């Protein structure tokens, strides 16, 4: 990616189903606001605003009769949840009138759960050992509505989360990667802690990719029992640098076009320089099975 002032923090994908190569990537720079990139790594726009430490995106949020990407993030200094509407044609982002999402003690991080017709579901990690789930939808009022749909106690405070197939994965400085069921039950706990998590399907198997923490880098975990399937290093390429200190990771199974990204894309933020690296999703499948190709990825 292009280097940007202050470096990149949390990353989220905004795919374009009709024109895959026109999909966008949104980053929350360390200095605050939002950066918008294209899939070639070019910085298209910086939107000023507070620093956000995590992002969840609904690519086709139904707002006032239109389908517009909605970006939700957490401002760590205040523990508040903020929303932005992304205008693809500019591209730029405008702060959205989001109803208050206020877990007890304030929010620590947010992650995407599901986009469905008419609403977005997210998980909000509290500063205390609790996660709440919320449904965001346009109810026609002055504010975009937000309704709490669940609240679960965690074994310890979490600072990163990811969701896949009704399962929520959380981790924190003192919390190893933990799988939470839709009913709020702890189903499995893995060995490492992590600074960043993403979840999805590789080779027909649910997996979690964990970055930083006690993983010491990147680790692919089995999404069911959270055992480590493979530790991964991203090394220097012919014209691109590797990743020295993986700090966060985000995966999308949506096509971003071209040969490399037609079956999805993974973004990793290197804590050494706070720049984003792109890796084809199928490359991670090959780390599990050397002969894997796009047709075997699943998801």
Automatic annotation (TrEMBL):
Lineage: Bacteria, Pseudomonadati, Pseudomonadota, Alphaproteobacteria, Maricaulales
Organism field: Hyphobacterium vulgare
Residue intervals of the BPP domain: 1-288
Chain segments annotated as coiled-coil in the UniProt record: none
Entry-linked InterPro entries: 6-blade_b-propeller_TolB-like, B-propeller_Phytase
Tree of life domain: Bacteria
The name this protein goes by in its record: BPP domain-containing protein
């Amino acid at each position: 990616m292009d280097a940007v002032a202050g470096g990149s923090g949390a990353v989220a994908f905004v795919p374009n189903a009709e024109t895959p190569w026109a999909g966008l990537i949104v980053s929350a720079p360390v200095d605050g606001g939002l950066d918008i990139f294209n899939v070639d790594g070019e910085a298209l726009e910086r939107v000023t605003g507070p620093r956000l430490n995590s992002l969840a995106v609904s690519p086709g949020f139904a707002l006032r009769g239109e389908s517009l990407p909605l970006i939700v993030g957490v401002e760590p200094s205040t523990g508040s949840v903020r929303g932005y509407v992304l205008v693809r044609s500019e591209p730029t982002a405008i702060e959205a009138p989001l109803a208050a999402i206020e877990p007890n003690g304030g929010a620590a991080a947010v992650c995407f759960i599901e986009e469905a017709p008419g609403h977005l579901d997210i998980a909000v990690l509290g500063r205390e050992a609790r996660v709440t789930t919320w449904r965001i939808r346009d109810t026609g009022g002055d504010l975009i509505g937000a309704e709490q749909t669940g609240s679960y106690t965690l074994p310890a405070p979490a600072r990163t989360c990811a969701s896949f197939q009704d399962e929520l994965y959380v981790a924190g400085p003192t919390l190893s990667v933990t799988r939470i069921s839709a009913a709020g039950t702890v189903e499995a706990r893995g060995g490492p802690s992590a600074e960043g998590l993403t979840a999805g399907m590789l080779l027909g198997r649910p997996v979690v990719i964990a970055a930083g923490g006690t993983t010491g880098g990147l680790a692919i975990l089995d999404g069911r029992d959270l055992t480590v399937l493979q530790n991964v290093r991203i090394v220097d390429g012919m014209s691109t640098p590797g990743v020295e200190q993986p700090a966060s990771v985000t995966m999308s199974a949506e096509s971003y076009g071209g040969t490399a990204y037609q079956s999805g894309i993974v973004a990793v933020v290197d804590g050494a320089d706070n720049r984003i690296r792109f890796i084809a999703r199928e490359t991670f499948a090959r780390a599990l099975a050397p002969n894997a190709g796009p047709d075997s990825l699943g998801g």
